[in-house]
Amino acid sequence: MHVLIHRHERQKPSSPGTLVARAVAGAACHVYQKASRHFSASGLPADAFAADREFWILHPCGEPLPAGPPAAADKRRAGMGILLLDGTWRQAGEMLRTVEGLGRCVRLPDAAAAPSRYWLRDQPEPGHLSTAEALARVFHAVGEPAAAQQLQLHFELHVYAMLLARGKREMAERYLGHSPLLAEGRDALERLHAR
């Protein structure tokens, strides 16, 4: 799991890419520098591009994500790597152009196009999701519902805490009213409120 994060996004506390790097075991974060004009694959481990494994680059303009969970015998998908592009939509398009050819560009299935819960920024289209939300849906699509649920809870807490930090208490309460945190993240909410 690799996150290519735009350098302007790296320092933002609201960044879903840095959330993924903190919340997902083994996730590595790589900073994209526009000045370099080309992202070098040297920042990623050599085995990410091994011929015996699949490497996906997640972006809405990719081909549909292969349907169904990976079969146990399918060794290419069993050791699959994923590259997430984290930045504004314009920045993600720029980063995509620099990593073309490093892997297979895929997008979430249309059925996964539920509205974004990333209330910290406006999404230009209904099917556009934050980096963390998209990864949670990839986990679900490849048969890892427990990982999807855990990441979604981290994400929900992240957004709720950021809304509170910005002084948007009423909006935060509306957000929480439709969040799985109420049922599955009570302890985390209590710790947050205790601060």
From the alpha carbons, calculate the radius of gyration and give it in angstroms.
17 Å
Counted beta strands? 5
- Walk across the major sheet and give the strand order: 2-1-4-3-5
Q: Biggest sheet: strands, sense, closure?
A: 5 strands, parallel
Choose one word for the global shape. globular
Number of helices: 9
* Pattern of helices and strands: EHHEEHEHEHHHHH
In terms of DSSP E residues, the strand content is 15-25%
Q: What is the typical, i.e. mean, pLDDT?
A: 83
Q: End-to-end span in angstroms? A: 32 Å
Number of domains: 1
Unreliable residue stretches: none
Helix content: 40-55%
| SS-based class | alpha/beta
Report on this structure.
This protein has nine helices and five strands, in the order E-H-H-E-E-H-E-H-E-H-H-H-H-H. Helix 3 links the parallel strand 3 and strand 4. The chain is 42% helix and 15% strand. The protein is globular and about 45 Å long. The protein is an alpha/beta fold. It has a five-stranded parallel beta sheet with strand order 2-1-4-3-5, with helices on both faces. It has one domain.
